[in-house]
Backbone:
């Protein structure tokens, strides 16, 4: 059975049930912040609300999402705009609803290849999210040099075509830089397999106090 990103339908829910789900998602998002900023909370504002809302419905396969439910999502944005935090919040929320999102950075996946020669779990027919694509290095396992993420994206594209299983990713790069990292063929595939979503605004990082 093909894994679904949705475990239950939200389309028939009453308004108060939808609100409860949104509140639950916000709690998952807040928990991301309090790990590094005790007492802090996840700010929802004009920069990230449309993305959070679109992803919320996308994860439930609900047509209220502004994003195409059949395609994956590529979250683009400058440094510190909250891309990783957003996906982490959805991974935790998705888990609470019986889903299972495998989420790892491109650099770690590439290093895993260099260490073990394996990338198989990223090619599995399930929902995966890859953080910071385009920033990793080309890796070598013994004599075999591989542009690991280009290869993973190539295979994820095939998986999406064959079985409709989407992929999520985040990046700091624009499309030209992406082409430099992965070549024109992968760039063209990425145009089709992902809805390109921009998470805008200034960096949300707060400097540590000087002591
Ligand atoms: N909505 C938010 N409200 C408050 N703080 C946030 C929010 N989103 C992210 N942050 C905080 O901002 C910082 C940067 O977030 P995050 O690492 O998710 O950004 P990023 O876009 O992935 O950055 P990079 O481009 O460097 O990968 C983190 O300290 C995170 O806790
Ligand atoms: Mg990040």
Residues:
């Amino acid at each position: 059975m093909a894994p679904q990103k949705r475990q239950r339908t939200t389309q028939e829910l009453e308004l108060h049930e939808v609100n409860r789900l949104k509140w639950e998602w916000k709690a998952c998002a807040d928990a991301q912040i309090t790990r590094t900023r005790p007492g802090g909370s996840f700010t929802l504002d004009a920069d990230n609300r449309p993305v959070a809302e679109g992803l919320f419905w996308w994860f439930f396969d609900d047509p209220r999402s502004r994003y195409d439910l059949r395609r994956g999502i590529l979250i683009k944005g400058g440094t510190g705009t909250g891309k990783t935090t957003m996906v982490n919040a959805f991974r935790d929320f998705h888990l609470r609803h019986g889903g299972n999102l495998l989420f790892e950075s491109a650099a770690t996946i590439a290093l895993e290849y260099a260490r073990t020669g394996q990338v198989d779990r990223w090619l599995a027919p399930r929902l995966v999210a890859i953080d910071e694509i385009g920033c990793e290095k080309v890796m070598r396992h013994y004599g075999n040099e591989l542009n690991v993420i280009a290869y993973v994206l190539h295979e994820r594209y095939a998986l999406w075509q064959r079985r409709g299983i989407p992929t999520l990713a985040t990046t700091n790069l624009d499309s030209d830089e992406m082409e430099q990292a992965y070549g024109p063929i992968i760039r063209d595939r990425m145009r089709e397999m992902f809805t390109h979503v921009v998470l805008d605004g200034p960096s949300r990082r707060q400097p540590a106090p000087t002591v």
In short: Residues 33, 36, 42-43, 48, 77, 79-85, 132, 172, 204-205 surround adenosine-5'-triphosphate (ligand 1) (CB under 6 Å). Strands lie at 72-76, 102-105, 128-131, 139-141, 144-146, 167-171, 194-198. The chain has one domain: 43-198. Residues 116 and 141 are 7 Å apart (CA to CA).
